[in-house]
Design brief:
149 residues, alpha/beta, Rossmann fold, four-stranded mixed beta sheet, three-stranded mixed beta sheet, 9 strands, 31% strand, globular, Glutamine amidotransferase involved in pyridoxine biosynthesis, glutamine amidotransferase, glutaminase activity
Length: 149
């Protein structure tokens, strides 16, 4: 799991603690990785101008371009029920300064969108969500992730 939080800080800690190579190695070996919010940012292969300006080191495990704070700042946080490709009923989501993918490669399976913004995706053993599933009482997304293991 790569959780939500502040992606620049998490990126710096991954670099300082020498965790980038071990994470990449495990991912290439097929270890499932689930990134939520900031984790979604870090798992992308490229970023918007805001990401590049922060000199953020991305892991590049999903072929996607990420836009941090794609839905606005903290005061623009919101809840919404959205359909996800792998669920039969909508999923209640919580977005807090959430990112979104603005471009994805051919090998990326888009699992959920709001308008033209990708908010859930999968590439092989890597799952990402722009929202915080830990803040709702619904385990279906975790059950989906457990199927990878």
């Amino acid at each position: 799991m790569i959780p939500g939080g502040e992606s620049t800080t998490i990126s710096r800690l991954i670099t300082q603690k020498g965790l980038k190579e071990p994470i990449l190695k495990k991912a290439k070996q097929g270890t499932p990785i689930f990134g939520t919010c900031a984790g979604m940012v870090l798992l992308a292969s490229s970023g918007s101008e805001e990401v590049e300006k922060a000199n953020q080191s991305l892991l590049g495990l999903i072929d996607a371009k990420v836009n941090r704070n794609a839905f606005g700042r903290q005061r623009n946080s919101f809840h919404i029920n959205i359909p996800l490709k792998f669920l039969d009923k909508p999923y209640k989501t919580v977005f807090i300064r959430a990112p979104a993918y603005t471009e994805v490669g051919e090998k990326v399976d888009i699992l959920g969108k709001i308008s033209d913004k990708v908010i859930a995706a999968r590439q092989k053993n890597i799952l990402v969500t722009a929202f915080h599933p830990e803040l709702v009482d619904d385990n279906r997304i975790y059950n989906y992730f457990l199927e990878f293991i």
